[in-house]
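User: ok so my PI wants both of these folded by tonight, can you help

Assistant: No problem, let's get them done. Here's the first:
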Amino acid sequence: MKKVILILIFLLPSFFLFSQNKNTYLPEKKHKKGYDFNDYIEKPREEMYGWGWDLFSISYGYHQSTILNPTFVGLIHNKKMKRAYGQSFTVRATYYPFLFDMKWFSSRFKPIDMPNWQYYSDAKIKHRGFEISSAIAIMPINLEISHILIPYIGIGYQSSNLAITQTEGTGEDAHDVTKSATPTSAPIWKIGFTINLINKLTCSTEYSQTFKLSSKKSFNQFMITFGYLPYSSINY
């Protein structure tokens, strides 16, 4: 399954890019409203993004995982463990309608009332990892609003683990030590949208989850981030 997802992430966009290099327009076969493929994708993309790849963004924001293991869910529901601040950092490159993401994330949890907890009270639980994914925008680029709002759906793969860390040392020597780590790596699907704000700023909201929900290591995730487009030529 992992290999299939990784192949799909790269194969579909690569095929599309190859076809564009071959200049494969469809001028003879018109769509219902008189638009051909060139009208829907190529011309608007050139007008909106210049040479295509110059929509590049970096973003940072809030990220939270929910481990779907019944025991884990029960600890949160019974207030024996609470969510702490989670964060993510994403680098995105866009060649409309494709979006390519590389993401680092860390979601944190704090034990509250766990008398049989074998670690000290300062121990932290983290769902952390790295994700690579590919998505496709689902709104036609010829619509005026698509310059601002970009809804998308995609697939990817996460290399991640659920780790228990504990701070050791004091002062400048204080550092986190991993006491245990359970692998949670898995293929994921995601859906979300990005809003292009003024002054090359963006806001994105995204939901993702593992394909398999019955596993004790399954999870879903939510994030909201704010980003910057350093090289974008978007016309607002």
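One down. Here's the second:
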Amino acid sequence: MFQRYSLKTILAVGLLVMPGLVLAKGPTTKEKVAALASAGKTIPVVYLTAGINGVSVVPPSIMETAIFNNGAVPADYAAIGDEAVKSFNAGFGVTAFKTVPSSQIPVVEKAIWGKVPDWAATDFELYVAVTVSGQYKANLASSTGAKSAKLNMKCAVEVMENIVDKKGQKKSDSIKTLRFDAQSKTAPIEKTPATLEDFSAAIPAASLTADLLEKEKAEIAKFAAK
């Protein structure tokens, strides 16, 4: 009776039978960066923001109620984009990573997400998107009447490349996404916040910039060292 084996099993057996067999691998990210740098090409780093949202919870329930969406991310966080350029260049030993304004990136309309960057429409080969977002959460303790707030700022640093798929179509492909965040201490509030300004009075929205910067440096250094 014949048995069926997975491709993974067949390959594993083949490697045992033919120890000299080496499967072809594509260039690593480090090799791609080095090649582009040697050719004098730019590796764009684009800073984006995804807004700050506000929610509230009334314990013991963990259900969140939206207060506001897409509040402005303070201009201070643009330093996160600048630091990405410095950290990538330092980590890979090049000067190819450079800031490119988000206004230069084409956009495409998506049914769920609305307007998003159309990376495949660019001439970039390898590129980085640095996106900062945040959330304020108000804790409205129903039994004691006490109220408090907390801020969480998040960052996603996504390394991408444009490739041509098997159908001959150009598309954006993600190589690696580095995710990290910074959280404030809990702060007491006197009234239920209704706006971004209400939350910011208790916890300034820009107060986590330095913490997020330090975490970014560590994550990019770790990625570049691999």
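Confidence is low (pLDDT under 50) at residues 1-18. The beta strands are 43-57, 65-71, 97-99, 107-110, 114-117, 126-140, 147-164, 170-183, 187-188. Good luck tonight!
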